[in-house]
Automatic annotation (TrEMBL):
GO terms for cellular component: cytoplasm. InterPro entries: Ribosomal_L11_MeTrfase_PrmA, Ribosomal_PrmA_MeTrfase, SAM-dependent_MTases_sf. It is an enzyme of class 2 (transferase). NCBIfam families: prmA (TIGR00406). One of its GO terms (molecular function) is protein-lysine N-methyltransferase activity. This is Ribosomal protein L11 methyltransferase. Pfam families: PrmA (PF06325). It comes from the Bacteria. Its EC number is 2.1.1.-. The gene is prmA. It is found in: Cytoplasm. S-adenosyl-L-methionine binds at T165, G186, D208, N251. CDD domains: AdoMet_MTases. Keywords: Cytoplasm, Methyltransferase, S-adenosyl-L-methionine, Transferase.
C-alpha cells in the first residue's frame, strides 16, 4: 500500500493539538519530533540499555517540533489539506500558538512508515515510579518500585513524554491510594489508564470521541497485562454517562475542559477528585475559576513549561 506523509512543522506548545487534528482527519499513525524531548537528555547509556549515546549525534529537530502523520491511499489528501491548515491556524483562538507553521506532503513506503519513529523513541522515566517503554524495546525495571507503561507510538497520540501527559501522570501518582474507580476522558493512547492501573487503581472506564483513538488505546492496553480489564469506548466527553467514579482525569485542551467541569461534578462523590491537564498558561486562570465556581476545591496546581495541571476535589461533609 502507498502512504502519504504530512509533516507539520510548528511549535512544541501545540504538538498534542496538531496530533489530534491530524488523527481527526484520518491519519493511521503519528510520529513526533519535539526539540523539548531532547533538552533533558545527557550523554551516556540511553534508556539504561547499555548503548552509549552522544545526544549531539541523535537526529532530531533543533527548534520547535515536527508532527508527522501517515495517511493510506484511500484518503484523498488534497481534500483534507485545507481543513488541516484552517484548524491549525485557528489554534490561536484557543490560547495556543502554532507559530509560522508549515504543512508539507510526500509519499512514503509502508516499510519506512513502520520503522520511522524507532530511532527516536526509547524508554523514558516520566515520573518517580512510571517509565514509558516502546513495545519493541527489551527493558527491565531498574528499581523495585519502577512500573512500566508499554506503548506503541505507531498507534499512540502521545508517547507519555509531553508536559501535559507528565503532569497528568504526576497528579495520578500523588492522589492514588489503591482500589479507586476512575474515568479517563479523552484517553488517546490510553497512557493515563495504563499508568493508573500500575499505580493501583481498580475499575477504569476510558472514553474518547474518535473511534481511531479507541482502537489505539485498546491496542496499547493489550500490551500491558495490568490494564487488561480497562473498559474503553467511544463517547463525547461524559455525555450520557450515569455511573460515577472516585477519580476523573482529563488531559485535553482548556476549551474542552470547560464543558466537562459540570459533568465531572455530577459524577463524582463527596471528596472525589478531578484531575485536569492540557491547560496552556493563557487559559489557566479561566479554567481554575470555572472549577471553583462549580464548587471544586483546588487542592494543588502543577506547572511544566507553558502547561498547567490542576488537582481539584469535590467537597465533603467536613468542608
Amino acid at each position: 500500500m502507498k502512504w502519504t506523509e504530512i509533516d507539520v512543522t510548528t511549535t512544541s506548545e501545540v504538538v498534542e493539538a496538531v496530533s489530534n487534528i491530524l488523527m481527526d482527519e484520518g491519519a493511521s499513525g503519528i510520529k513526533i519530533d519535539d526539540a523539548k524531548d531532547f533538552e533533558n537528555l545527557h550523554d551516556g547509556p540511553l534508556g539504561h540499555l547499555g548503548d552509549y549515546v552522544e545526544v549531539a549525534s541523535l537526529q532530531h529537530i533543533e527548534f520547535g517540533a515536527k508532527v508527522t502523520a501517515y495517511y493510506p491511499e484511500t484518503i484523498f489528501i488534497p481534500e483534507i489539506l485545507p481543513t488541516i491548515n484552517q484548524r491549525i491556524s485557528q489554534l490561536n483562538e484557543f490560547g495556543l500558538n502554532p507559530g509560522d507553521f508549515t504543512v508539507k506532503t510526500s509519499e512514503v513506503a509502508e516499510s519506512d512508515w513502520a520503522t520511522a519513529w524507532k530511532k527516536y523513541y526509547h524508554p523514558v522515566r516520566v515520573t518517580r515510579f512510571l517509565t514509558v517503554v516502546p513495545s519493541w524495546e527489551s527493558y527491565k525495571p531498574q528499581t523495585d518500585d519502577e512500573k512500566l507503561i508499554v506503548l506503541d507510538p505507531g498507534m499512540a497520540f502521545g508517547t507519555g513524554t509531553h508536559p501535559t501527559t507528565k503532569l497528568s501522570l504526576i497528579s495520578l501518582e500523588q492522589v492514588i491510594r489503591g482500589g479507586e474507580s476512575m474515568i479517563d476522558v479523552g484517553t488517546g493512547s490510553g497512557v493515563l489508564s495504563i499508568g493508573a492501573k500500575q499505580l493501583g487503581v481498580g475499575q477504569i472506564r476510558a472514553f474518547d470521541l474518535d473511534d481511531v483513538a479507541v482502537k489505539s488505546a485498546q491496542s496499547n492496553l493489550d500490551l500491558n497485562p495490568v490494564a487488561g480489564d480497562v473498559e474503553v469506548a467511544a463517547n463525547d466527553l461524559l455525555n450520557g454517562i450515569t455511573e460515577g467514579a472516585q477519580i476523573i482525569v482529563a488531559n485535553i485542551l482548556a476549551e474542552i475542559i470547560m464543558p466537562l467541569i459540570p459533568q465531572a461534578w455530577n459524577l463524582l462523590p463527596e471528596n472525589g477528585l478531578f484531575l485536569t491537564s492540557g491547560i496552556i498558561n493563557k487559559k489557566f486562570d479561566e479554567v481554575k475559576a470555572a472549577q471553583e465556581k462549580q464548587g471544586f476545591i483546588i487542592v494543588q496546581t502543577l506547572k511544566m513549561g507553558d502547561w498547567y495541571g490542576i488537582i481539584a476535589r469535590k467537597p465533603g461533609v467536613d468542608d
